Structure formats: C-alpha cells, structure tokens
Amino acid sequence: GDSVTQMEGPVTLSEEAFLTINCTYTATGYPSLFWYVQYPGEGLQLLLKATKADDKGSNKGFEATYRKETTSFHLEKGSVQVSDSAVYFCALKTVDTGNQFYFGTGTSLTVIP
Amino acid sequence: DGGITQSPKYLFRKEGQNVTLSCEQNLNHDAMYWYRQDPGQGLRLIYYSQIVNDFQKGDIAEGYSVSREKKESFPLTVTSAQKNPTAFYLCASSIQPTGGSSSEAFFGQGTRLTVV
C-alpha cells in the first residue's frame, strides 16, 4: 500500500545552519506530495506541495523537489531560524486510494540560537 | 474567514462515558477526515468522508463513530469501547476534485481529549 518514510528525529541545529529532512514514498499511482508543519499544541499547516514529477514546491525559504526516479521529496532550507522549530510531516495523496492522505511519522526540529 | 473549527480545544471525560468532538468547516470542501495523534507519533486515520451521508473507516476506527449529515459538519464520537482514548484529535478537510489528487488538506487546531 501507499506509505511515506521520513527521517527520524529529533534534529537539533544551530541558527543559520542548513536543513535537510529526508522523505521517501511508496505509491501505486501518481501521488501529490506535501510537507506540513506543526507547532506545539496546534494543527498542521501546509508548508509546500508538488503535484507532478520534477515540480519544486517552495515557501518561506523551504524547498522540496518531487523526484520520481528516487521516489523522494526531501525538505531543505538554506538557513534555519529559531522560529522554524516545529515538527515537520511529509505526506502523499493519490486518486487510486480514494484521495486519502498518508503521513510520515514526523520529524521534530529544534533550532538553537 | 474561511476555515475549519474544532471545539472544544480541551476536553475531559470520565472513563466509560461517550464524548463527541465537533468539527465544522466553511470552505465548501467535500472531503473531511479525522486523525488521532499520540505523543511523538504521526497521524493515524480514524474515519474519512468524501461526500455527505457517506464515510469510510480508516486504520483505527474501532471504538469511534462519525456522521456526515451536512457538508460542513463531521462530528466524531469517542465511545466507551475505545480502550485508550486520551489523545490529540485532528480534523481536516479537502476539496475533492474529480480525477485529481492535488488538493491539500486544511486542518483544525485540534482537540486534546483526556479521559480520567
């Protein structure tokens, strides 16, 4: 079945460091891919998405490229800030599975000054 | 403002009591979803609905029930049969375009249920 595998955390970085959070997927159809962010005690917010191969999603300095050949959608940011501390979820959705969303287990990021 | 509203934010119940969590959206979305989140874990799908008067079980439906009588509302009842109900519950909605999967989910702020 469809699934998402995320790099395990927690991840701790110093401010202005480079961030990569790995995400790979398994899907029977042609998925859309998403990154969500969750701050403590809140719901998830969409960070970025990509709907077809080679698309790059970007928002607030974060980027991820839909790589069909490696079934990956890694999240990157060139210079993290303390305010980026949160839990990040990778997710996919396909028509073949009735438009269900499949989420990874989340990666906790802490950025220290 | 358009959005998805969950209420209440915090809920306490005694063991053995049923409790209903509210989820309302004014985004005119067809699909709605309920997820459970436990500390340090990802989201697990409880139920989802793609259209009014229809819903499907997710991965952990046992001990839960839902209804979808109106497009904008998708309440979740946690019954006494749910063995470990204390958790953070998230409701989400999504446009359901025909023939495509590109639409994202919009989430509510969640309800933290504690059963004592």
| Count of alpha/pi helices of chain A | 0
Oligomer: heterodimer
Q: Please give the share of residues in helix of chain B.
A: under 10%
Number of strands of chain A: 12
Helix coverage percent of chain A: under 10%
Q: Which ranges of chain A are low-confidence, i.e. pLDDT below 50, for 5 or more consecutive residues?
A: none
Instruction: Estimate the global geometry of chain B from the Cα principal axes.
Output: globular
The first-to-last residue Cα distance of chain B is: 36 Å
Largest sheet of chain A: 6 strands, mixed
The share of residues in extended strands of chain B comes to over 45%
The largest interface is:
A-B, 27 and 28 residues
- What's the count of strands of chain B? 11
The coarse silhouette of chain A is globular
Report the biggest beta sheet of chain B as strand number plus sense, adding barrel if it closes: 7 strands, mixed
Mean pLDDT of chain B: 92
Percentage beta strand of chain A: over 45%
Write the layout of secondary structure elements.
The complex is a heterodimer of chains A (113) and B (116).
Chain A: E1 3-6, E2 11-14, E3 19-21, E4 23-26, E5 32-38, E6 44-50, E7 56-59, E8 62-65, E9 75-77, E10 86-93, E11 101-103, E12 107-112
Parallel strand pairs in A: 2-12
Antiparallel strand pairs in A: 1-4, 3-9, 5-6, 5-10, 7-8, 8-9, 10-11, 10-12
Chain B: E1 4-7, E2 10-13, E3 19-25, E4 31-37, E5 43-51, E6 54-57, E7 64-66, E8 76-78, E9 87-94, E10 106-107, E11 111-115
Parallel strand pairs in B: 2-11
Antiparallel strand pairs in B: 1-3, 3-8, 4-5, 4-9, 5-6, 7-8, 9-10, 9-11
Summarize the structure.
The complex is a heterodimer of chains A (113) and B (116). Chain A has 113 residues and is an all-beta fold.
Description:
Chain A is mainly β. Chain A contains no helices and twelve strands. In chain A, strand 5 and strand 6 form a beta hairpin. The N and C termini of chain A lie far apart (41 Å). The mean pLDDT of chain A is 94. By secondary structure, chain B is mainly beta. In chain B, strands 2, 4, 5, 6, 9, 10 and 11 form a seven-stranded mixed beta sheet that branches. In chain B, strands 1-3-8-7 form a four-stranded antiparallel beta sheet, with no helix packed on it. In chain B, 0% of the residues lie in helices and 48% in strands. Classes of the chains: A mainly beta (113), B mainly beta (116). Chains A and B meet through strand 5, strand 6 and strand 10 of A and strand 4, strand 5, strand 9 and strand 10 of B.
